[in-house]
Write a structure and sequence with these properties.
binds zinc ion; CNF1/YfiH-like putative cysteine hydrolases; alpha/beta; six-stranded mixed beta sheet; 7 helices; 14 strands
Length: about 270
Amino acid sequence: MITPNPAIDARPVKEGKMHSSNEMIIHSELLSRIPPIRSGVSTRCGGVSREPLGLNLSYNVGDDPSKVTQNRERFFGALNIPIDRLAIPYQIHSAAIRRAENPGRYESCDALVTNIPELFLAVSIADCLPILLYDPVARAIAAVHSGWRGSKEKVLLKAIETLRKEFGSCPKDLVAFIGPAAGECCYEVGKEVAKEFPTECVVQEQGRKPRLDLKFFNKNILLESGVDEQRIEVSPLCTICTPAILHSYRRDGHSSGRMMGVIGIVP
Ligand SMILES: [Zn+2]
């Protein structure tokens, strides 16, 4: 059977689908249905680093580098992604985007785009949102890191614009996964930060600091750009209140490890 491109299987994803403990990968249900895409977000389970680092994938948090390498081999190995095919931004909480042509580190940016098969884009997170985009028509992808600063600068919107400029991508064709991140249940911010966002993205409750809903904010960016709601999946998982499986900088501070969200096109 031939599936006409760009049609994808956009049946609704199951609401509130939770992740079973001890698995090292969170899959997007939508992206998993698209054969040329290989993607996933790591958890803190199944690693070799001392707790609470577990499956820490960052070399910048004081973890033993040989353990980080083993963790990366485990996670990317389980996804059948060669480590030497990774393109990784050196993130600075900005809206800077770069086009990846080769594996390696990309300085001072928070999103990468590419249309090169078997080049895997990976962003590092622990509360900030990992956002993975795929355009099945232009055959292009993006990986975006967006915390409150990146969201305020609309890094996701700039990534969508970059996909259009570089590859002729149309927002209506995009498939998007907003992965696990600090949720509106827990993500308290100061008044100064809260007022940078629309009121519908801020939860105000008597006796508590304002809480930001960055998943909602970024989902709205997708919708306003023209992405079909059927093609958007938002992980219900909150990093802060899911300590069994997710790293959270807000919760664990300097002892927190980092997870990664990765996406690539395979022939
Ligand atoms: Zn929470």
